[in-house]
Sequence to fold (72 residues):
Amino acid sequence: MKTAIFPKEFTKLISRLFRQRQLGDYEFELSIGKDEALEDLGYAERIVQAIESYLIREGFIEPSNKTSTSNN
Fold:
């Protein structure tokens, strides 16, 4: 049973991010451009924020002033 906790679109975005990671890690003749990398970063941040919001809402973690996507 699918719960629809997160947007259906996340499935495609996570697959895309995984493919891009594989490309970046293992394909030495191909590269990802800066614009595409920034777009992927935005997708990843959106997914992480949604997961963090869900975990806070469900009481698994406490809200904090510092988010997991901040620059350390």
